[in-house]
TrEMBL record, chain A:
Species per Swiss-Prot/TrEMBL record: Novosphingobium organovorum
Record flagged with keyword Acetylation: no
Residue ranges, compositional bias (Low complexity): 1-14
Any Pfam family hit: Fer4_8
Domain 4Fe-4S ferredoxin-type: 44-73, 113-145
Entry-linked InterPro entries: 4Fe4S_Fe-S-bd, 4Fe4S_Fe_S_CS, Cys_rich_dom, Helical_ferredxn
UniProt-recorded name of the protein: (Fe-S)-binding protein
UniProtKB/TrEMBL annotation, chain B:
Gene3D superfamilies: Transmembrane di-heme cytochromes, Chain C
Name assigned to this protein: Nitrate reductase
Residue stretches spanning the membrane: 12-33, 67-93, 113-135, 147-165, 185-208
Keyword tags: Membrane, Transmembrane, Transmembrane helix
Taxonomic superkingdom: Bacteria
Organism: Novosphingobium organovorum
């Protein structure tokens, strides 16, 4: 690290994306790149949080990785420790004094490498820690910034997360699906389900963005989207020029890829005059589009951004969505619901999926911690995409498994693709028979007069 | 000039100057960073950034029920030491007198017994916090020199203050000198270390409250 704050030092050539094993660049250059990446969008907000930690350790008690493993290294604020140290040594208000007196140690690249599993494998960026912090530190936000630094230093986990983000930066899609293939897949899904499928319409009031992961793993959810929108009777269209809502780059820490995905969707929705952009059942992509996209593109968005569950709740209220109640046998143990952190805790919309479930007449047995207090499934923040993190992820999932069992329900409904995957894998690995269902898919099954409108 | 004169005179002015300038410098360093204009549309249940910030500054002083089962010890120790300190500082007769002399504003003081009890609770809470910091795995990992120094710098004025109030066999002037000097040491370190949480916990809460308030996600 140089004596000059990295943010003010002359810009060196940015580090290309690399994996931890690569050693083609000088460590110091990579370290500087890491710090520059970390502080690149530092404002009073993040700087205040860097100054505010009490070291009280309460955040550990809010984190599924610490609570389930008991290993103190999973304490949320500890996950950004090297960046905290580097900040106070190089950039904080007393940096020169602290350097002079040797009060904060120098951070090494090796340390950042060792921190990879804390910043990626064991943080869902779910923000539960920010709910307990007496200083109001948004640790999830700081982890996101630290990941920017890790990306610049080439320290993204190389397996699934790194590979998908790389593909997304290159092609705009984490799986590199070309537009024609995407269009073809969508039309085929429409054909298979006997649905009118709208793709690349020049004008549409409602544009649903779709997760590539849905396209690969849950095509029925894409059919459900089309079925529901046909039922509601709005003019709508998928857009292959702004389709992929996954934004794996966001969780990897690649701001260039992140911007590319965001911009493509904003431009596509703007081009067809959309009034509403629906984000699929996919957590982080929603917060990115809902709270960050306008800042990324530099202007207020000309359309509203809604999570699928918010859109469904709005249409229910307006009367354009009419649902049949689910017929439940008298001895049914009921269902429960897992709140996606980004929609519930981070965006304050725990009410929307509950309005939908009420309309469906579900016998909802809430988890002990639900709504904003809900525990993350353990797959968020890209953790589900890191192969080597699976044992740890399963360990963290135990808390969710226990709470579901305690609720007595035989089905968990989710409204996020990532959560759905994590629950399915988690239950499978534990040998549970608890069912996992998508709220959107259920809505699509319970439409009134759906055949007439489909 | 006796040591007591020094403590009451130049040391007091010097430490106050360092406290004020240090805090102003630290706050300025943070708040002069370029702020980003948030262009996202506010959320459905938005309280607005300002109300969100104010609400969070107060609301976060109360523990959240969900976490209490796991954080009770920290919460209790935190309340005990902060409320105790508050009672001693704002209710103890010598402190009120000092404030009245300096500012002209005074208020009724608390009975000596209440202040003594509060001091005792504070002292025990601080000692327990120190023990906990040395023994709890998470706290041991997180703690650095600043954490221990800040605790000790708070402990000494409380301990010397208790001895002063109890009129022990120790010479009053010597005790008073060390009480004042220890408070000044605390004031000098405050802006540089974690004692600055007196300001920064509220600043941090305000930032989170503004963000979540705008989103309508205060909970």
């Amino acid at each position: 690290m140089t004596a000059v704050p990295p943010s003010m030092s002359p810009a060196s050539k940015p580090a290309p994306r690399r994996i931890a094993e690569s050693r083609s660049q000088e460590d110091r250059v990579r370290l500087d790149a890491a710090m520059r990446g970390f502080v690149s969008d530092f404002g009073p907000e993040a700087a205040t949080w860097m100054e505010a930690c009490l070291h009280c350790g309460q955040c550990a008690e809010a984190c599924q990785f610490y609570v389930e493993t008991g290993d103190p290294k999973y304490t949320p604020i500890w996950k950004i420790e090297p960046f905290k140290q580097a900040y106070s040594r190089e950039m904080g208000p007393f940096a020169p004094l602290f350097r002079l007196l040797g009060l904060t140690p120098k951070v090494s690249l090796g340390e950042l490498e060792r921190w990879q599993d804390l910043l990626y494998d064991s943080c869902n960026m779910c923000g539960r820690c920010s709910l307990v912090c007496p200083a109001g530190i948004d640790i999830a936000d700081l982890v996101e910034k630290a990941r920017h630094g890790m990306f610049e230093a080439g320290l993204v986990p190389p397996d699934y997360l790194g590979a998908l983000a790389g593909k997304e930066r290159e092609t705009g899609s984490p799986f590199g699906i070309p537009k024609d293939a995407m269009r073809q897949s969508l039309l085929e899904i429409g054909e298979k389900h006997g649905l009118a499928m709208h793709v690349d319409e020049p004008h549409a009031d409602v544009v649903p963005a779709v997760s590539s992961i849905d396209l690969k793993m849950y095509p029925d959810s894409i059919a459900a989207t089309a079925r529901v929108l046909n039922h509601i009777g709005v003019s709508w269209s998928f857009r292959t020029d702004g389709f992929d809502a996954d934004n794996v780059s966001l969780t990897a820490g690649d701001r260039v890829g992140q911007k590319r995905v965001t911009q493509a969707i904003v431009e596509a929705a703007t081009r067809c005059g959309a009034k509403v952009l629906i984000m699929p059942e996919c957590g982080h992509s929603y917060t990115e589009m809902r709270w960050e996209a306008a800042n990324t593109v530099g202007h207020a968005l000309p359309f509203r951004v809604l999570h699928m569950s918010e859109y469904l709740a709005e249409c229910l209220e307006a009367g354009s969505l009419r649902l049949r109640a689910v017929e439940t046998p008298a001895d049914s143990p009921g269902v429960t619901f897992h709140d996606p952190c980004q929609v519930s805790r981070r965006s304050g919309r725990s009410d929307a999926p509950r309005a939908v479930m009420a309309a469906l007449g579900l016998d909802l047995h809430e988890l002990a911690d639900h709504g904003p207090d809900s525990w993350c499934c353990g797959g968020g923040g890209g953790v589900a995409l890191i192969n080597r993190a699976k044992p740890l992820r399963n360990h963290a999932f135990a808390i969710k498994d226990r709470q579901v069992a305690d609720s007595g329900a035989d089905t968990v409904y989710v409204s996020c693709t990532g959560c759905r995957q994590t629950f399915e894998h988690g239950f499978k690995d534990l040998g549970r028979v608890t069912k996992v269902g998508s709220l959107l898919d259920l809505v699509a099954e319970q439409l009134e007069e759906r055949e007439a409108k489909a | 000039m006796t040591l007591l004169d020094f403590a009451r005179g130049p040391a007091l002015y010097g430490s106050t100057l360092i406290l004020v300038c240090g805090l102003v410098w630290r706050l300025t360093g943070v708040f002069l960073l370029p702020a980003r204009r948030d262009r996202a549309a506010p959320g459905k249940g938005s309280y607005g950034a300002l109300w969100g910030a104010l609400r969070m500054m107060i609301a976060r002083s109360l523990p959240r029920r969900t976490f209490l089962g796991r954080t009770l010890a920290t919460v209790l120790l935190g309340y005990a030491m902060h409320l105790g300190l508050g009672i001693v500082l704002l209710g103890g007769a010598p402190h009120v007198l000092l404030i009245e002399q300096a500012t002209g504003i005074g208020w009724p003081t608390l009975p000596k017994g209440v202040v003594a009890l509060a001091s005792g609770i504070t002292l025990v809470a601080l000692l327990l916090a120190l023990v906990r910091r040395c023994t709890h795995p998470v706290l041991r990992l997180l703690s650095n020199g600043d954490d221990y120094l800040s605790l000790v710098l708070t402990l000494i004025p409380v301990a010397t203050g208790m001895l002063l109030a109890e009129e022990t066999a120790l010479p009053y002037d010597t005790l008073l000198t060390w009480h004042i000097l220890s408070v000044e040491a605390l004031m000098i370190w405050l802006p540089f270390g974690k004692l600055s949480h007196a300001v920064f916990v509220f600043a941090g809460r305000a930032m989170l409250g503004a963000k979540l308030g705008r989103r309508g996600a205060l909970s």
